[in-house]
Amino acid sequence: MQSLRRVWEHLEEGFIAFLLAAMTLVTFVYVMLNNIYTLFFALADKWAWSSSFFNALGDGTMTWAQDMTWSVALTKAMFGWLIFFGISYGVRTAGHLGVDALVRLTPRRVQRLLGMLACLCCLAYAGLFMVASYKWVSAVLAAGIGAEDLDHFGLEVGHIALIVPIGFALVLIRYLEIFYRLFTHRQVGLGLADEAGEASKLAGSHEERD
């Protein structure tokens, strides 16, 4: 049970790490293939006795590079998934910025009530977009539109767009967790990032070093 809880708590960052690694790997291979075949052709021109060998390597590498035109489309799709996993990850880790200078001037009880009100607005926003995006994705899937440069793998636009309702569903769940903590007095506000506070800490650390 504890392992499942840890998986749930770190769900977004696990997918984010996977997507970043996959994007980096695909881009690296594509760039390497697009640059290394010129090296093989240059070696074939320099060493005539092995020109057939290096020409064969150059031709094969160039063919692989030309066949990997799908890599750009795949990277774009993974970047879209990265964004929507990042939204819920930001909610969980208090990474989103907010303007709460006036709210912090109020008593803690008022801050908690305002936090609950703001959380309800966020829940309504996430729920609205989750339902609307689900209907949109359902229509796109029904249309069966193939994804650009990825359709020969059987991928459709609807498959890529699935992350939109999934992402907003994760955001909805994360805000439900925050609302529960607010309701049970375990939290005061939404848990927003304090950019000014972080800047002050950094400035203080620099002054101590000096």
As residue ranges, the low-confidence spans are: none
Structural class: mainly alpha
What is the oligomeric state here? single chain
- How many strand elements? 0
Q: Share of helix among residues?
A: over 70%
Strand content: under 5%
Tell the overall outline: elongated
Order of helices and strands: HHHHHHHH
The number of helical segments is 8
Average predicted confidence as pLDDT: 83
Instruction: Determine the N-to-C terminus distance.
Output: 48 Å
| Cα-atom radius of gyration | 25 Å
For the sheet with most strands, the description reads:
none
In words, what does this structure look like?
This protein is an all-alpha fold and 210 residues long. Helix content is 77%, strand content 0%. The protein has helices spanning 2-9, 11-46, 51-67, 70-92, 108-143, 157-161, 163-183, 195-209. The two termini are 48 Å apart. The model has no long low-confidence stretch (mean pLDDT 83).
Summary, kept brief:
The protein is built from eight helices and no strands.
Task: Record keyword descriptors for this entry.
mainly alpha; 210 residues
Chart the SSEs and their pairings.
Layout lengths: L1 H8 L1 H36 L4 H17 L2 H23 L15 H36 L13 H5 L1 H21 L11 H15 L1
